[in-house]
Design a protein that fits this description.
The structure is a single chain. This protein has 301 residues and is an alpha/beta fold. It has eleven helices and nine strands. The strands form two sheets. Strands 7-6-5-8-9 form a five-stranded parallel β-sheet. Helix 7 links the parallel strand 6 and strand 7 (202-206). It is an enzyme of class 2 (transferase). Belongs to the aspartate/ornithine carbamoyltransferase superfamily. Residues 3-139 form the Aspartate/ornithine carbamoyltransferase carbamoyl-P binding domain.
Length: 301
């Protein structure tokens, strides 16, 4: 694995090794305080960010490296300069490129012209760092990932795709429960199911909450992805039956909650459960930094 653009680059052992390294980074930070000494990581952001920007910036610092943040004020990729020129220039100076972009094709072109590792920190199709942070969090609460049943509830999107990919590779059961018309990408589902046939994982899509009774973990996301200007009132009626709340936990028997945030309290999730004993949401947010550090260390070194 030389880059991380989709998650499909990982073997099962590589995914397990990243999770193990993430756990060790979290438990023994002093051990890795100089792991990226003398290294520089450029983080490119076309889209707004809280968790991704902060966790990469602080994470690189915790490893003794130097993070350089670039947003659109420094010139829009493909506008002020071609993507290939961004990649070719930055890779002459930096040891790794982390990019949060609108279009996955931007990352593919960047990888083509970069001589250093490229990490996808979010695009329209994939969010691999998030997916791996999620399974790191799950693995802290469940010893055997192959026995875990994870339900994603809401709009089928880039996060859903990355949960499918990571879950398929790791041998877990992942079911997306989406309103009609909001299912994940069919091609990515098929790719994940092909992997699942080899690992013993199960990848499903349904529109019925009834299908996730007896699951272990439920996962939520915002109903409207960043940049989607659809009026909330247009989708509220369609999505409210998929809200993560105490009634859903009671009816399914689910014990733990994840949410990649930003969360819209009272819409995609209630404050009662987000702040309640079932929530692993802020552990999950913290683990973004630890798994991203594991990914950078693995690719850079």
């Amino acid at each position: 694995m030389e880059d991380l653009l989709t998650g499909f680059e990982m073997t099962q052992q590589q995914a397990l090794d990243l999770i193990a390294l993430g756990k060790d980074l979290k438990a023994n930070p002093a051990k890795y305080a100089q792991a990226l000494a003398g290294k520089s990581v450029v983080t490119l952001f076309e889209k707004q960010s809280l968790r991704t920007r902060v966790t990469f910036d602080i994470g690189v610092n915790k490893l003794g490296g130097h993070a350089v943040y670039l947003d659109q004020a420094n010139g829009a990729m493909g506008s002020r300069e071609d993507v290939k020129d961004f990649a070719a220039n930055i890779s002459r100076w930096a040891d790794c490129i982390v990019a949060r972009v609108y279009d996955h094709k931007t990352l593919v072109e960047m990888q083509q012209y970069s001589s250093v590792p490229v990490i996808n920190s979010l695009c329209d199709l994939y969010h691999p760092c998030q997916g791996m942070a999620d399974f790191l969090t799950i693995s802290q609460n469940y010893d055997d990932l192959t026995k875990v049943k994870l339900a994603y509830v809401g709009d089928g999107n880039n996060v859903t795709h990355s949960l499918f990919i990571a879950g398929a590779i790791l041998g877990a059961t992942v079911t997306a429960v989406c309103p009609i018309g909001h299912s994940p990408d069919a091609q990515i589902i098929k790719q994940a199911q092909d992997i699942a046939e080899k690992t013993g994982a199960t990848i499903n899509v349904t529109n019925s909450i009834e299908d996730i009774k007896g699951y272990d973990v439920v996962y939520g996301d915002t109903w409207l992805s960043m940049g989607d200007d659809t009026p909330l009132e247009q989708i509220k009626a369609k999505f409210m039956p998929y809200q993560i709340n105490q009634a859903l936990l009671d009816s399914t028997g689910i014990k733990h909650i994840l949410h990649c945030q930003p969360a819209h309290r009272g819409l995609d999730i209630t404050s009662e459960v987000m702040d309640g004993p079932a929530s692993l949401i802020f552990d999950q947010a913290e683990n973004r930094m630890h798994i991203q550090n594991a990914i950078m260390l693995t690719l850079v070194n």
